[in-house]
Amino acid sequence: MIGWLLVGLLLALSLLWLLGWWSRTDVKTAKNTILWAIVFVCIALAAILVATGRGVFALAPIGYAAWRIFGQAMFAKNVYDKFSNRENRSGMHGTAKAHDLMSRAEALEVLGLNEGASEEDINAAYKKMMAKVHPDRGGNDWMAAKLNEAKRVLLNPKS
Asked: Residue 88 contacts by C-beta under 8 Å, 6 or more apart in sequence?
């Protein structure tokens, strides 16, 4: 009985320490920690399944862990490649680096709009997309910068 009491006390103290760490850490560290915790749990679950003779079922947590590690990185690379391969689309042959400027068509594509979109449509699409990719909400700086650039190109065509 005393053994279970000590286990419970140790668990409670561990949770209090974890809560204190969680309140002091920055968002990027917390996200990274959660990612690796999920991967660790998936690998532990797969090991238990293999040890109990259910190796086929271990493929699911291993596959999920692999996607968490490699899948998201590949998705980010594909998005980056899509927007960085612009050598001839900007119409700036030789006068500036093509990847430094965004054309109006690219800006519309980034915001998911069609030609002739009103200022209200542009602002609404910008706010909706920014809510999903803002760095403070789990997104990244690169996508937020692309949205800012797209909004600037569409609302201030002369700058």
From this structure: 98
